[in-house]
Every structure is written in structure tokens, then in C-alpha cells.
Amino acid sequence: MTAVPWSPDRFPGGPFTPQDLSELGIPRSALQRELRAGRVRRVLRGVYVDAAVEDSYDLRLAAVGRVIAPGHIACDRTAAWVHGIELVGPLERDGIPPVEVCRLRAQQRSVSAEVLGRNRDLSAADVMEVGGFLVTTPLRTALDLGCVLRRRDALAALDQFRRCFGISTEDLTREAVRYFRRRGVVQLRELIPLADPRAESVRESWTRLAIIEHGLPAPVPQYEVEVGGRVVFRLDHAYPSSRVAVEYDGYDFHHTDEQLESDAERRRWLRDNGWTVIVVRRGDFSGSQLDRWLSDLGEALRHAYTNLRW
Q1: CA distance 135 to 102
Q2: CB of 97 within 8 A of CB of 88?
Q3: Is the alpha carbon torsion for 237, 240, 241, 242 positive or negative?
Q4: Are strands 40-44 and 47-50 parallel, antiparallel or unpaired?
Q5: Which candidate among 1, 81, 87, 275 keeps its CA 20 to 30 Å from the CA of 115?
Q6: Tens of pLDDT along 3-47?
Q7: 34 near 3, Cβ under 8 Å?
Q8: Other C-beta atoms lying within 10 Å of the C-beta of residue 75
Q9: Residues forming CATH 3.40.960.10 domain(s) in the chain
Q10: What digits encode the pLDDT tens for the residues 168-194?
Q11: Centroid of chain to Cα 304
Q12: Roughly how many angstroms between the first and final C-alpha of the chain, as a whole number?
């Protein structure tokens, strides 16, 4: 087929695949050029959209609908993404995981470079239809992710599903009984009691889990500091009786000059009013950096305890 001369307005208006472009006579080199120029972005592996199109629930449904085969069920991180929750591993290619789908145990799983196929034992109550395709429900997705993700990401998934969908500890515990002998169920059972809907980001969940697994008491998430009966600050994690706070500084909300100055002013006020503030940053979840802030936290809690005793 002879390629038709390409122009930017010839790209489809919604999510599209390289196959869609091939059928329009647009060469793959044009797609790569537009990606490099930032005029097209990848929303899933093998699915693209005009960079001017904003992320939305409808866009996510349309994107998954372009690659999921009839009778297959979006699951795990793809289901979470459809439900509005993003869980991407740090080593994922381009920061975008494969499309994860499943079929019932006796059926042929998907085999594709862009799709990761699995088999699962699902009941009718585990599956819902959205946008013309099947996806695991929020509760089922949370439980599956509690098994298949590494520990800290699994807790983050449980936290976010609890926060966004009102899932309770009792809901998770009741349904986890069905996971008897499934790979990852021991981790799931350990994490369910730790899941907390007050966590507002993945790395806040990582921070809380690191504290607990270091043998320190669990902090209070999203603690409100009041002055004169008015809330003046909200802390990521706090030990109110000890006046110790643990704050995670993520890039999204802590990188502009205005944000940095606001953080500095708030922490000056806290320290002036008897609080010890431990700051955790993006690279502080392994090695000596992790040991450093956990040691600082342990020392702050011990010191506060001694003051309260004497």
C-alpha cells in the first residue's frame, strides 16, 4: 500500500493504535516523530492520543477498549487505572505497564506483545461492564493487587481503593477468605489490617509501611493541627502526643519556589511550637537514606517519651 502524505490533522481524534494509522496510510515514522515532539502521547502500551487531549475517565475507557479482546477482562493495574487509580512500577518501560487482562481458568489467555494475559477464578460478582468491556470490580481489583504487587505497592493499592471506593477492612477480610492457597495471599492477609483510607498518595503509604516494619508505632495519617479551634496545618503522618511529624515531600506538590517557601514556613512554625519534623523525599526508601530517617524518627519518639515521663 502506498503511504498517503502525512499531516498532523490526519491523526484520529481519540485513542488510536499503530494499526489504526497503518489503515489510514500514516507511516509509523510519523508517529515516532510526533511522540518525540510531544504532540502525541502514549496512554497505554500500544495506544496513543493527541497530547492536547486531557486524561479523563472516558479517555481511559476508550483507550482500554482499543486493545482488549472480546470476552477478556481488564484486571490488576489496568483495572485500577480504569477505576482512576494509577500504580506504575519505577522500572516500567516508559512508565507505562502492559495492559493486564484475564480470562476464566479453563479459557485461553491473551498472548500479545502489548497485553499481559492471565487466568483467574472469578465469580459473576467480581466483574462489571464499563465502556463496553469487562473489568474486575474495585473490591476484587484491590484484593488481586494485594497479592500480585510488591509489598509497599500492594499496601498503597489497598489504601487507595479504600479511600476512593469506601471499601472497609471487613470487606477485604471477608473476601480474602476465597483466596485460600493463592500465591500472595499471606502478604494480602498481613496488609489488610494496615490499610488506611486516609493515605493520599502512594509514597505516603510507602512511608507508613516503612515506619511500621521498622518496629515503630503506626502514625496518624493526615493529622490536623488546630490553633484556637481552627485547623491551620494537616500533617502527612503524626504522633500527636509526642509532637512528632513525618512529612513526605513529593515532586508534584513540593518543587516550585512558592511551594518550598510554604513548606519551610509551616515547618518553622511547627518546630517553634515544640514539634519535631522528619522529612522524607523520593530517594529515601532504600539503603542508608531509609536507615537515616527511620533512625531520626526512632530517636525523636524516644526523646519525646522521656520528656513525657519526667
Answers
A1: 9
A2: yes
A3: positive
A4: antiparallel
A5: 1
A6: 444 455 667 778 999 888 888 888 888 889 999 999 999 988 889
A7: no
A8: 29
A9: 202-309
A10: 999 999 999 999 888 999 999 999 999
A11: 34
A12: 85
